[in-house]
């Protein structure tokens, strides 16, 4: 096999309340090792979950516009909460100039192989009309259990090992023992996917399937970026720009706790 021809350069921006965007960013990097990445989050405003939909929309627009100022070819809304509450406003503000890709829980592929299925999500998303609508649309006759995971996103955000263990154990206790697949309904959860698998896996049963959204949104963002006319050609430049509540900084130390964060930091130029 000859050398890979990546063609035009591509710059992908990702936004989230916190470090949940690392999973999708790492998937973009795996698919396009040359991609420039802009990671825009809002540590000053954490957590977003308890905020009103109007406040979430306002903060999402601020975070997205900080990323858009770096002129990316596509923007991934790597946050389930922002996708639920702010996606229409983000698209109204930024498209068609900047393609905006939202994050949807991977319920459809999870139920395709039968069930039963559990959806792990934040308390605000669990039982919401949005999530119930996706279940009604895609689940058909498959048994689906909604599992609230209070505190898990925060534990992952701050790399609090004890809190991660405790919150995963609490959610696993609410997950039926016959579940064959778990949908990771918050982007933060994908950073601890194997710990979730270990907590839910039952002895003697086939390996538990986990369904996140990072791979799908990364692929979609690269497709949308490739559709843009006039993408600038150039040499490989896998740069990484990190915006924390609009400030250009390094990746937070907690991000380096996770393999995805270390992968991204390894190709980040020094600021």
UniProtKB/TrEMBL annotation:
The keyword Transport does not apply. It holds the Pfam family Asp_Glu_race. GO terms for molecular function: glutamate racemase activity. It comes from the Bacteria. InterPro entries: Asp/Glu/hydantoin_racemase, Asp/Glu_race, Asp/Glu_racemase_AS_1. One of its GO terms (biological process) is peptidoglycan biosynthetic process. Keywords: Isomerase. Its EC number is 5.1.1.3. This is Glutamate racemase.
């Amino acid at each position: 096999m000859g050398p890979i021809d990546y063609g035009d350069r591509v710059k992908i921006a990702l936004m989230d309340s916190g470090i949940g965007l690392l999973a999708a960013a790492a998937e973009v990097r795996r698919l396009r090792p040359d991609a420039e990445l802009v990671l825009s989050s809002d540590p000053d405003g954490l957590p977003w979950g308890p905020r009103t939909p109007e406040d979430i929309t306002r903060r999402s627009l601020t975070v997205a516009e900080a990323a858009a100022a770096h002129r990316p070819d596509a923007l991934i809304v790597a946050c389930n909460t922002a996708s639920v509450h702010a996606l229409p406003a983000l698209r109204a503000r930024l498209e068609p100039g900047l393609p905006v890709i939202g994050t949807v829980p991977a319920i459809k592929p999870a139920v395709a192989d039968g069930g039963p299925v559990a959806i792990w999500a934040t308390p605000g998303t669990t039982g919401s009309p949005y999530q119930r609508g996706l279940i009604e649309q895609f689940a058909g006759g498959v048994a689906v259990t909604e599992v609230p995971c209070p505190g898990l996103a925060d534990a992952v955000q701050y790399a609090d090992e004890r809190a991660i263990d405790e919150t995963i154990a609490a959610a696993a206790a609410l997950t039926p023992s016959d579940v064959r697949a778990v949908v990771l309904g918050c982007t933060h959860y994908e950073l601890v996917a194997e710990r979730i698998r270990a907590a839910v896996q039952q002895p003697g049963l086939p390996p538990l399937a986990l369904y996140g959204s990072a791979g799908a949104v990364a692929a979609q963002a690269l497709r949308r970026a490739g559709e843009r006319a006039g993408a600038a050609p150039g040499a490989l430049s896998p740069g990484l720009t990190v915006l924390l509540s609009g400030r250009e900084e390094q990746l937070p130390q907690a991000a380096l706790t996770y393999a995805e964060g270390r992968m991204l930091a390894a190709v980040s130029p020094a600021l």
